[in-house]
Write a structure and sequence with these properties.
Chain B: Homodimer. The structure holds 2 protein chains of 2 kinds. By secondary structure, chain A is α/β, with parallel strands linked by helices. Chain A is built from 15 helices and 12 strands. The chains are: A alpha/beta, B alpha/beta.
Chain lengths: 510, 479
């Protein structure tokens, strides 16, 4: 254990006596703060893990911002506070936070608790490594490689590939755009966009907004992101894509990339990758698949057909922190390239980090592949849980989530007052709740307008009650509808029934 | 086989198992990473070659899972072969040490798994982030402003460039750079490489970071605390130039920003209140733990949001039942965003600004002590550049060569520089293989490999400084 008790510092860590030479004072030692850490962990395990996943507890404890500010006493002051007070503050932070691991949290494209991933997060936080060089992060460098290799194998690139883990799927999508741009016009790296003609990206109308943000950030311009219409199921129409490409070329524009989405944000739709790949091959365009949400189907023998053709694409973004439940952030970017494109595109070769005269093989220093400097070892969160569960368990979870979505869709169809937007292809179940007072109205603008006001009120009520959280949104001119997202293996049929019962209970008087 | 409805009746997982694993794994983390990892009697690192380490870790991902005992052993192995960045003899990067309050904040952030895009999902942390940013802006000298936490200082620097560009040419968001004049960024040769990476990424081109004839300057990125030498650009004078030419002044204070907590040393950033934006990484000198990086802005016109927003209707509905200005997610280029403010907030609450000030001041004292000791010993030669007339480093980076006895007095030899360049890499290899400490080295311009020690951890004492000097001598005397 750590140094002797004579050097034990009581209480606060900032208590340095000022009359001695400060350098003679004992430094902090672990014994002094071990009790604080133990207590905080006990509380975390009890309140943030155990209770948070307990269906008998609330999903959220709603307070208005003004109330909450007062409750939290956020102000940062000159003097410190005793540890007991700090522990109380931790307790408050837990209490007033939304329990995203609760069985009735369905609000976003992630949910549930994965304890093996959480342990990996804790280890990472305790070690606080930075993933730019092998000397700094030997273990995590190798782990990231191993996970990427496995994901690449699953995607089906036999010749292998490259990649890294990013601070989010938005960043992965940006990387794809950057690599596509660089491959076509490598001089842009030094000279800027002006060294190239006006470039254009094609994406579906259902795509994630990060494509647009990427174009803005990278100086391409959101106007040069061309939106291809989707069909009724939310899938990109390949013939429309081809038409738009032809049209742009005839005006002198230069298409360089197509972004297809595997699992769109709202509808959970899968663009037809094989057909889109045909178009991209014909016009020699980089094909990126944003599979941040839908990539998990590749773990399932039953459902991977949704991403048929994935082995033909140039890059894939896949977020294990979504359906597979690794802790935030866990976002993989994969590229089908063996020419060190990532490295060449991003490198700045800083000599204070990437010395070439190190005593080990410096190709293990992956930091220059990234646009970031310090980078967290997010792949580890996925590696440890994969080791714990095995591929077959991950597959089972995906299959179950989709079966659960199927069940929910069936129930919605059977129940009066619920109307499905479309048959779910994945884990998004979109539907309207039509309160009794509106059920006799014919389909039309009057019903749409009244219906539009239902979901926001039901949402407000569910949050103030704390019974569950389900998202709603308008979409393509339609009235607000709910989007149920089914992910976690902790939910079961009763929870699906509960959601429908609760929505009815909260909204029947509207 | 089609799963029947019956298969969906019960939860698939057992919470009790998971909770037990968490409990057991935490014990290992405490023992191996926090206790041993901060103990000078233990090694800083356990070096293995990549192939050997890959074998030891058994990295392969398989069909079947493993029992908990195996997994707990894996936790132990990860701890064993990872670098102990909190060890008192870890001086390799611009972060070190550990603060247990911020650590508790980090564990808590992970357990809650909150996504910081809307108030509905992250009520506590939306408010907390705002308060922390307010506190940091106050130290810069701004009573109002904007900002957010980014996944690293490189991103903060990129945001500053993006905002400056957008302010000058708002049409760039939709139209891109194609029809704009060539834009250039000014920065110093000592600036962090993220300025160049950012410029490439954002379509300016790396070559346009420095002056180009006929181009339109739009941003000056200066550095408070350069990476290698810890130098502070003269902000007041640079601000004069920026005011005159109406350029956006960004201060990359990722490393040096923390001096603002110190009454004694904040003068190093005199004039910072005149900047438009400041990047500051509390995960460096304040020991908040990776990641903890902020971008602070003087702007009060909602520029951040206007520049980045995409108004996604599935997330930022305008008909919510609370004030939707609290849905800050559209200010960022990210979608999912982690909670990085809790670790700083909790630590700040625990030790107060006064405690953080003491931490900063102590780091300076350590640096001075090391320099004083080096002057008393043969063989340690400081890089002179950042020293004031008192030959003290400006900050807490101490850059020096170790001249082994065999090279002393031989400066005039034609192969002196070549031989000197080989010294640091060998000493580094030896220290890592023995696991006694970690210090970085690098070349800079025409100066051959020298060591850079950065001293900031609250866990070090002067004994560790003495050890450091003794160890360099021990490892390098025979060269």
């Amino acid at each position: 254990m750590a140094s002797s008790t004579e050097t034990h510092i009581k209480g606060k860590m900032q208590h340095f006596s000022s009359h001695n030479d400060p350098l003679d004072r004992p430094p902090l030692d672990f014994a002094a703060t071990e009790s604080f850490l133990q207590q905080s962990m006990t509380m975390i395990l009890e309140d943030a893990v155990k209770k948070a996943t307990d269906v008998r507890q609330k999903v959220c404890e709603w307070h208005s911002p003004e109330e909450l500010k007062e409750l939290l006493d956020l102000e940062l002051r000159d003097s410190g506070e005793p540890e007991a007070r700090i522990l109380e503050r931790c307790r408050d932070a837990i209490r007033y936070s939304v329990k995203t691991t609760h069985p009735h949290f369905f609000n976003q494209l992630y949910a549930g608790l994965e304890p093996y991933s959480l342990v990996a997060s804790f280890i990472t936080d305790a070690l606080k490594p930075s993933l730019y060089t092998y000397e700094m992060s030997p273990v995590f460098t190798l782990m990231e490689n191993a996970v990427l290799r496995k994901l690449i194998q699953i995607v089906g690139w036999e010749e292998g590939g490259d990649g890294l883990f990013n601070a989010g799927g938005s960043m992965s999508n940006m990387y794809a755009m950057n690599l596509a741009r660089y491959r076509n016009f490598p001089e842009i790296k030094e000279l800027g966009n002006s060294a190239a003609p006006r470039l254009a990206v094609f994406t579906s109308q259902e795509c994630h907004y990060s494509i647009s943000k990427a174009a803005a950030l990278m100086g391409i311009g959101t106007k040069n992101v061309f939106v291809v219409p989707s069909d009724k199921k939310g899938k990109m129409i390949p013939s429309a894509l081809e038409e738009q490409i032809e049209s742009l070329k005839s005006e002198g524009g230069v298409p360089f990339m197509v972004n297809a989405t595997a699992g769109t944000t709202v509808l959970g739709a899968f663009d037809p990758i094989d057909e889109i790949a045909d178009v991209c091959e014909k016009y020699k365009l980089w094909l990126h698949v944003d599979a941040c949400w839908g990539g998990a189907v590749l773990m399932s023998n039953k459902h991977k057909l949704l991403m048929k053709g994935i082995h033909r694409v140039d890059s894939v973004a896949w977020n294990p922190h979504k359906m597979l439940m690794a802790c935030l952030q866990c976002s993989a970017f994969l590229v089908r390239d063996k020419t060190r494109l990532l490295q060449r595109c991003h490198s700045a070769r800083a000599s204070y980090l990437f010395q070439q005269d190190k005593f080990y093989d410096v190709s293990y220093d992956t930091g220059d592949k990234s646009v970031q400097c310090s980078r967290k070892p997010d792949a580890f969160k996925f590696w440890l849980m994969w080791k714990a569960l095995g591929t077959s368990e991950l597959e089972q979870r995906v299959d179950r989530a989709l079966a659960m979505a199927r069940y929910l869709a069936d129930e919605i169809t059977k129940r009066e007052g619920f109307r499905l937007l479309m048959e779910p292809e994945y884990a998004n179940v979109c539907f309207w709740y039509i309160p009794p007072s509106l059920r006799d109205l014919p389909d039309g603008p009057v019903l749409q307008e009244k219906l539009h006001n239902v979901a926001p009120v039901v949402k407000e009520r569910m949050m103030k009650k704390g019974s569950m959280m389900v998202g709603y949104q308008p979409h393509r001119g339609q009235a607000n509808f709910f989007r149920m997202v089914v992910i976690s293996p902790q939910v079961s049929r009763q929870d699906m029934d509960f959601v429908l019962d609760e929505i009815h209970s909260l909204g029947k008087d509207l | 086989m089609e799963p029947t409805a019956g298969d969906l009746t019960d939860p698939l997982i057992n919470h009790a198992d998971g909770q037990l694993f968490l409990h057991e794994a935490f014990k290992i983390i405490v023992e191996e990473v926090l206790c041993k990892g901060t103990d000078v009697k233990e090694k800083v690192c356990e070096w293995r070659e990549p192939e050997e380490l890959a074998r030891l870790l058994d990295l392969e991902l398989r069909e079947k899972g493993e029992p908990q005992e195996n997994l707990l052993q894996r936790v132990r192995d990860v701890a064993k072969y990872s670098i102990k960045t909190s060890h008192p003899r870890f001086f390799n990067q611009q972060f070190a040490g550990v603060d247990y309050h911020s650590l508790a904040g980090r564990f808590l952030s992970e357990a809650l798994n909150t996504n910081l895009f809307t108030y509905e999902v992250a009520p506590v942390f939306v408010l907390m982030e705002a308060e922390v940013l307010r506190g940091l802006r106050a130290l810069v000298g701004w009573t109002e402003g904007d900002g957010l936490f980014c996944p690293g200082g490189s991103t903060s620097n990129m945001y500053a460039m993006n905002l400056a560009r957008y302010r000058l040419y708002p049409e760039v968001k939709s139209q891109g750079l194609w029809s704009l004049p060539q834009l250039t960024v000014f920065t110093s040769p000592e600036s962090h490489y993220s300025v160049k990476k950012g410029a490439a990424f954002m379509g300016f081109g790396m070559d346009n970071v420095i002056l180009v004839k006929g181009a339109v300057p739009f941003l000056v990125s200066c550095t408070s605390g350069t990476t290698v030498q810890g130098a502070f650009d003269p902000l007041d004078r640079i601000a004069n130039v920026c005011d005159k030419h109406k350029l956006w002044l960004h201060v990359d204070a990722a490393w040096g920003g923390s001096v603002l907590f110190s009454k004694k040393h904040s003068h190093l950033m005199k004039g910072v209140h005149r900047a438009n934006s400041v990047a500051w990484n509390p995960h460096k000198m304040l020991v908040a733990g990776l990641q903890c990086s902020v971008l602070l802005l003087k702007d009060t016109t909602d520029l951040l949001k206007k520049c980045h927003c995409a108004n996604a209707t599935y997330l930022f509905q305008q008909d919510k039942f609370y004030d939707v200005n609290l849905d800050i997610g559209d200010k960022t280029v990210q979608c999912s965003r982690k909670v990085d403010c809790l670790k700083l907030w909790l630590m700040w609450k625990a030790v107060g600004s006064a405690g953080l000030e003491q931490r900063v001041d102590k780091a300076f004292l350590h640096a001075r002590y090391v320099v004083d000791q080096m002057k008393k010993r043969d063989g340690f030669q400081l890089l002179r550049d950042v020293s004031s007339h008192l030959n003290q480093p400006e900050f807490v980076n101490v850059c020096f060569w170790f001249i082994p006895p065999s090279l002393r007095g031989k400066e005039k030899n034609p192969d002196y520089q070549n031989r000197l360049a080989k010294v640091a890499p060998v000493i580094k290899e030896r220290m890592m293989k023995q696991g006694t400490m970690m210090v970085g080295y690098q070349p800079l311009g025409d100066r051959v490999n020298f060591f850079r020690i950065t001293i900031l951890s609250p866990l070090v004492s002067h004994k560790d400084m003495d050890f450091f000097l003794d160890e360099i001598e021990r490892l390098g005397n025979d060269l």
